[in-house]
Amino acid sequence: MPHLTDQLSAYLDGTLTPEDAAAVASHLAECAECRGTLDDLQAVRNLLHTVPSRAPHPSLLPRTLAGLGGAAHRRATPWWMIAAAGTALGLALLLQVRLLPTPHPDRAEGAWYFQQHAVFAAAHPMSDVALASYLSGVLPYDVLREWSPSPQNP
Amino acid sequence: MTSAHVALSVALPVDELAQAAEGASARDQFAELLAAHWDRAYRFAYHLTGNNADSDDLIQQAAEEAFRAFHRFQPGTRFDRWFFRIMHNSFVDRIRRDRRRKIFSLDEVTGAAASETADPSAIAEGALDGPVLRALRALPPDARAVVALVDLLGLPYDDAAEILHCPVGTIRSRLHRARLALREWLRPYVDAMKRGDL
Ligand SMILES: [Zn+2]
């Protein structure tokens, strides 16, 4: 009769039917090798039971719960916001090429501002408001510069 | 200010209100269930990934996915099994995506970790965590998942089969092979355990 394989683990875990368990028991009574394996398996299982519980960091659950639905919300960005972002990006790139030298003598700084704006507008469609304000002359350039992140620390 | 600004201030609050009224109770319900099973779920995540940083990521991703799928959860069925299954699926996806991480078969791994894990000096100190955890990490992911569920979390084979989405017979044979591999890698500790020294 061949030696027992995974019946041994199942026997140890008590998951065999009574008939199968009886068959395993009668093999074990005759076979020292399988008895040895069973003892080993039992020892392995006991070793595994010594592994301590890993507790999550106490802040992990509150942080996880607070973040729920965040990704879904981002996906639910309305189409008009995406369209606005696209328009802002296009305008910003166009203006950077065509119009910058006229409104501001400091070309490098102006170019930087519009680059930042293009990137920012893609991520935050409502920054289009800032661009529109700038174009319509409501806000002076200095104010816009203050609002935007500095070149040293973008 | 601009038409865009007006549209935002009018449209968004209405939208938010509608969502909040509809989703509030489901969210609370989900939070309550998740909290009730959090520690055990984390334990499963920890033994799947083998470290704290990855288990934090995994359980958070699983929570997000479960929350989005929560309308499909049937009240009265066991949330922990459902959540464990989602988490295990996320884990499998991660492994597939992560091409840097090679997945070994159990046979390839057998013997590979033996010299690393056998440190009899640890027996005297009773510091078993290290060797046993290292041996667990050396198991291939599918075997590790079974050992985590059955031996570490104490779930029945049926539940493990449901969570890992495979037949009970597969659970049984994987578990057995994993235990045999652990026996080889942890031989000094196994013998000490049999002698009653541990
Ligand atoms: Zn035998």
UniProtKB/TrEMBL annotation, chain B:
Q: Which GO terms describe its molecular function?
A: DNA binding; sigma factor activity
Keyword match Transcription regulation? yes
Q: Superkingdom of this entry's organism?
A: Bacteria
RNA polymerase sigma factor 70 region 4 type domain span: 132-182
The alphabetized UniProt keywords are:
Sigma factor, Transcription, Transcription regulation
Question: What InterPro entries does the entry give?
Answer: RNA_pol_sigma-70-like, RNA_pol_sigma-70_dom, RNA_pol_sigma70_r2, RNA_pol_sigma70_r4_t2, RNA_pol_sigma_r2, RNA_pol_sigma_r3/r4-like, WH-like_DNA-bd_sf
In the record, which residues are listed under signal peptide?
A: none
In the record, biological process GO terms are: DNA-templated transcription initiation
Question: Start and end of every RNA polymerase sigma-70 region domain?
Answer: 35-101
Family from the record: Belongs to the sigma-70 factor family. ECF subfamily.
Protein name per its UniProtKB record = Sigma-70 family RNA polymerase sigma factor
- Provide the organism lineage as a comma list: Bacteria, Bacillati, Candidatus Sysuimicrobiota, Candidatus Sysuimicrobiia, Candidatus Sysuimicrobiales
